[in-house]
């Protein structure tokens, strides 16, 4: 039996349960292929999957090394300079080469590298021409911002002329400087670099001297700091590289070290593809946007809209609209908390009727009793209110379901623990081995995955225009939800030693079915994007609106 | 913090103190020094209000608290008693870019070049504070009420500052 066969969607759980394979064969199949209902088969790519690679840190380091070696050979500079230049240009090699060929001195200066030939440390005097002019200009800027400081500078004696200006040690063991010639003792340098790298996480560190924009080269850091600090620095460079390279993304899971490389999800494709990638440790995240976790089947732009809607207080405004009325004259918001229907606006003193919103004067002698119907002025006022009330109800319908699945997904940690206990129990009460009871854990995993999908289908449904396509979408959603709830229920059922083989069979079948439904859901939505079947009821970034209504399938 | 860094902090503070007492401050705008011989990490500064500002004629007392990794980290400055100024918190703490490390920027308005660096000194910071007294920076206010007052009703701001100066002098 091939569980991952795509072509046959239409069987339901009963069919599988009726399947004729005996217990033993399904067990052996499970043992052979541990992941058979977790990972979709790799050889056949589903339409909702994208190509990506998961890289180790060393692989990234190799890319960086290759880049800097190229720069080193083209520009004839040392490794530190190449690294600073690349970081300055955001690792854009082509642009760096172009700019550098154009005007090397300017690029070097902008990157914080004095343009002179490298001179040994503690040789400050001759290499100052360039930095000193820069200092002169920046002093002018200082003067304008902090006038009294600069003016009063002259009469004050400078700090100790010899020795380290930072710690005031007059005879430090060794003094070093960058190419700008600002001399400080090695201990101060080490402390300073350590603070910058460890506490502030910076990889572009300026010289300690005031207003000096020369950057500390890598070699200097290696020489001055201990190994732990230097390796942290290398990691920061790595992160800088990944952050500036479009087809790379760091796995956002805490302390995960993998980087995902993906070239098949350029920003322009994000309106039709949800580029979900999985790192080698199994952390799923979206390559196209910073939303944590898997937000299939909803595309990034709409998912962002939804999260924004849930987070910001636009719904507060919606509540106000639904539960309050506006004074028809001055538009002040009024909540009626008691009293009769004869309202007098506290602000503009306008008198109106709370029931029909018409002016009170039209009520004549019918005091405290509004039996008038259909006055034009009042029906208009009522219309806007009921509209916003309907929109709030609609939002809450989808939000409650969304939040419910999110909540369940959060509780999955507990469910894991509970299931783990059950699995132990089953081992004791039946003859099954630990590997053979893994079906329960797999069911939990599948439920969690499907709840994530379901969660986002509700956000998607909120933004979908009414159409046949949406109805089909909702059918799929309902099927998936039903299947997930059934499986959840199975997971919650108490264990009866008699029934363990039955339960196992049922749960395994259900898990496969749920997985299938999830695939159908994702596949169908992904195809829908490609065919342009979905039309949104709100403007979406990157998607033109007012196209002809895309209607397909009956 | 380890011993060597607090030893170098002490050495640096002693040097700065020596230079301040020898050189004196320009135009005698301020004096600063440790409160007691036994604790070099807590200083007191007396600052005279700059001329042609509502602070003129006042003497303001500020406490400087140095961290043990000074000068890698900046010290803290607090007016005691607090003064009325847009860039001074109600409790007297001074909010000025030169006393912020590049990492922390509570107001996100400051360029890294204006921040603390180990080559700054007590003297430079206090001179900056004096110039701040004369020209408040409303973009990154610490005392928002005072910022509003300064912006909307400057005469009233100046009147209140003068009243505060008189009060602090005990007049």
Automatic annotation (TrEMBL), chain A:
Residues 114-127 have a biased composition (Low complexity). Residues 1-43, 114-154 are annotated as: Disordered. The keyword Ribosomal protein does not apply. Coiled coil: none annotated. One of its GO terms (molecular function) is ubiquitin protein ligase activity. SUPFAM superfamilies: RING/U-box. Residues 1-21 have a biased composition (Acidic residues). The keyword Transferase applies. Its EC number is 2.3.2.31. CDD domains: BRcat_RBR_ANKIB1, Rcat_RBR_HHARI-like, RING-HC_RBR_TRIAD1. Keywords: Metal-binding, Repeat, Transferase, Ubl conjugation pathway, Zinc, Zinc-finger. It is an enzyme of class 2 (transferase). This is RBR-type E3 ubiquitin transferase. It comes from Exidia glandulosa HHB12029. The lineage of its organism: Eukaryota, Fungi, Dikarya, Basidiomycota, Agaricomycotina.
TrEMBL record, chain B:
One of its GO terms (molecular function) is ubiquitin conjugating enzyme activity. The keyword Ribonucleoprotein does not apply. It holds the Pfam family UQ_con. SUPFAM superfamilies: UBC-like (SSF54495). The active site is at 95 (glycyl thioester intermediate). It catalyses: S-ubiquitinyl-[E1 ubiquitin-activating enzyme]-L-cysteine + [E2 ubiquitin-conjugating enzyme]-L-cysteine = [E1 ubiquitin-activating enzyme]-L-cysteine + S-ubiquitinyl-[E2 ubiquitin-conjugating enzyme]-L-cysteine. GO terms for biological process: ERAD pathway. Residues 8-170 form the UBC core domain. Its EC number is 2.3.2.23. The keyword Ubl conjugation does not apply. Keywords: ATP-binding, Nucleotide-binding, Thioester bond, Transferase, Ubl conjugation pathway. It comes from the Eukaryota. Belongs to the ubiquitin-conjugating enzyme family. This is E2 ubiquitin-conjugating enzyme.
